[in-house]
Amino acid sequence: MQDIDGIFVFRFFIRDIYIQLCRHRCPTPVRVYRGQQISEAELKLFEKCTGKLVSFKPFYSTSRNREVAERFALGGGSDGTSLCSVLFEIEADPRRTTTKPFADISVFSDFKDEAEVLFMCGSIFRILNVSPDQNGLHIVRLQLCSDDDHELKKLFEYMNKQNVSWDGILAFGNLLLQMGKLDDAEKYYRIGLSQLVFTHINTVYYYHGLGIVQKEKGDYAASFQWLQKSLELYKNMGNHSSVAIVYNNIATLHFNKSDYKQALDSYNMALEIYRTQINGDRQDIAMCYNNVGAVYYEQKKYLEALEYYQKALTILEKILPVDHPQLGGYYNNIGDVHLNLGHDVYAFEYYRLALTIKEKTLPAKHPSTATTHQSIGLAHEYGGDLTQALKHFEIAAAIYSDCLPAEHVSVVEIKKHILRVTTAIGEKKSP
C-alpha cells in the first residue's frame, strides 16, 4: 500500500538521499544481488513479464556478496506460507548518464560484510530472464535501465513538461489525480488552497482541480460550484484556453446528468473559443471533440459519434507519446462505437489497444482500466461468451471497489452487469 502522506512529508528527505547517492555513486559497472521470498503468483508474474520493465517503489537494497543475498533468499518461511526463494541478479552501469543513482554504502553500514549497494527509489529495471538453479533458488536477472533507453521515456518527458509550472503541493495534487487517487488529490488541493491568499494566481488552479475531483467522484453539484469559481477567475485573467477547458468540464457535468442539449451548448462554446482564439492541434481541443462524440454516442447517433472520436484521435496521435494513457481512453471509446455498430472485430482490436496502454502506464487499480475491462465484458456478452464476460466484469468490479465510493454510478452499474450475466449463466445450467 502506498503511503501518500509519508511520501509528501518526507519528500525533502528523499531528495537528500538522492543527492547523497549521486555524490557517492558507483564509478564502474557492478553486478549485485538481492535475496528474498515472494509468492508463487509473484514469481509467475516475473516469468510472464520477461523482457518487460519493473520498478520497485522503495529504495532498493542489494549486496555485492552473492552468499549474503542467498542467505536472505533461503531464510525464513517458518510461518507456514508457501513462498518461493528468489535471488535477484542485477547488472547496473553508471556510465549510462541518465540512470537513477546507486551507490556502495557499506562504508556507512554497521554490517560491512553485506557490501550493500543502494538504488534510488523508482529505479526501472528490465527483466532479462527467470530460471531455477540447483540450490532451490529461482534466479531473476535484471538490468538497470537508463531513462533514455526504455519505452516510457517519451511519456515521462511529456508528463514532466505538463507539471513544470505548478507549485509543489499543486503538482502533487495533480499527480494524485492522474493516478486516480481522488481522496488524496482532494486532500492536497485543499491543503494547498488553505495556504494561499484569494488573490494568488494559483487559486484558480486549485478551484479547477477540486472541480475535477468532485466530478470524478460523482458529486456534480459540488463540482459545478468549484468549476464556476474557476471560470470567473479565468475570465478575469483573459485565459481563453482555460475558459474553454472549464466550459468543457461544465458540459461534462450536464452530460453526466443526461442533459444532452446543455452539454452540447457548453461543448460548442468551448469549440468556438478554440476556433477563434487558439490555433493548431491541442490536447484540449481533442478532448472537446471526444466529448461531443460521447453526447452523440449516448443519443445512439453512432456514425456522428465515430466522426468526432476520430477527429479527437487524429489530433492526439500527432502530439502525444504512443503509450500515453489518454490514448487508451480514446481507443476504448472508438471500440464502444464499433461494438454498437456490430463491428465486433474492430471493437476487440480497439479494446486490446486500450488495455495494453492502460496496463503499461496506469496504476494497477486505476478506474480507467476498469472501464476497458467492462467494455470487453460487454463485447463478450453480446457475442454469447458469458464466462469471459463475467471474468472481465469481476476484474472491473474489483478495481472500482478499490478506488471509487460504493454509491458511484460505475460501481452500481458493474454490479448490475455481474448480476445479469450470473443469472444468465445459471439459467443455461438449469435443466
From TrEMBL:
Keywords: Repeat, TPR repeat. TPR repeats lie at residues 244-277, 286-319. The keyword Repeat applies. InterPro entries: TPR-like_helical_dom_sf, TPR_rpt. The keyword Repeat applies. It holds the Pfam family TPR_12. SUPFAM superfamilies: ADP-ribosylation, TPR-like. PROSITE patterns: TPR, TPR_REGION, TR_MART. This is Uncharacterized protein. It comes from Rotaria magnacalcarata.
